[in-house]
Specification:
With about 250 residues, the protein is an alpha/beta fold. It has a single domain, classed as NAD(P)-binding Rossmann-like Domain (Rossmann fold, 3-Layer(aba) Sandwich), CATH 3.40.50.720. It has a 7-stranded parallel sheet, sandwiched between helices. The longest helix is centred in the middle third of the chain and has 23 residues. The model has no long low-confidence stretch (mean pLDDT about 95).
């Protein structure tokens, strides 16, 4: 790829699969040393680390459920202890429980809020203690955080709207340190959680302008740009990678 992130250290939450794994691989390809967190699947996380190492990069996997405050804080500390510092944080860990709101249980609501909102808050707060000037904080929000066309995502889209406002607000608090805060908002992306085939995919594909699902590497490419020195005057921005869903 490039050496735009040479000498940088990045933390990607939820980096064992899907969009998170693609982001971890891309940041490593651009020269960063990368720590990823994962909730349960140690073998998937190890496979991402191995792919990065096989390509000549440096990576480490740290087990931490994004809903567990102490585990999240500990993961940030471990990443810094192992890799020496922290320049880039990608808040990618997230979940959706697609069902009509009237049928959603309080436990399901709590799970989505704890991972998608509280986990982002705790990770970011822990990271800021270690982040030097001119760092990068990147949220992985969603195009439904601005405009939702899909029934069954009311609670999820509300959490992504919260992430959007968090990024905008935090950018003003820490801009004096040269740290940028941006929110990358994917649309329908082909992953295990949201495969590009099946009943759930048909309405999502239909509302895109390009009439297709996106690829994880298309999200990772934007994240890599936002993480790079070239993006130094972009902050508080919501950058949508959604094939025109919100056009």
């Amino acid at each position: 790829m490039s050496d735009s992130l040479k000498g940088k250290v990045a933390l990607v939450t939820g980096g064992s699969r899907g969009i998170g794994a693609a982001i971890a691989r891309r940041l490593a390809a651009d020269g960063a040393s990368v720590a990823i967190t994962y909730a349960k699947d140690a073998s998937a996380a190890a496979a991402v680390v191995k792919a990065i190492e096989d390509a000549g990069g440096k990576a480490v996997a740290i087990q931490a459920d994004a809903a567990d405050t102490e585990a999240v804080r500990s993961a940030v500390e471990k990443a810094v202890a192992t890799l020496g510092k922290l320049d880039v944080v990608v808040n990618n860990a997230g979940t959706a429980i697609p069902k009509l709101f009237e049928e959603t249980t309080p436990e399901e609501m709590d799970r989505v809020i704890d991972i998608n909102v509280r986990g982002v808050f705790i990770t970011t707060q822990a990271a800021l203690k270690h982040m030097k000037n001119n760092g990068r904080i990147i949220m992985i929000g969603s195009c439904v955080g601005e405009r939702n066309l899909t029934p069954g995502l009311a609670a999820y889209s509300a959490t992504k709207g919260a992430v959007k406002m968090f990024a905008q607000s935090l950018s003003r608090e820490i801009g004096g340190r040269g740290i940028t805060v941006n929110n990358v908002q994917p649309g329908p992306i082909d992953t295990d959680l949201n495969p590009a085939v099946g009943d759930w995919a048909t309405p999502q594909k239909a509302v895109t302008a390009l009439n297709r699902y996106g690829h994880v590497d298309e999200v990772a490419a934007l994240v890599a740009f936002v993480a790079s020195p070239e993006s130094s005057y972009i902050t508080g921005a919501n950058l949508t990678v959604d094939g025109g869903t919100n056009a």
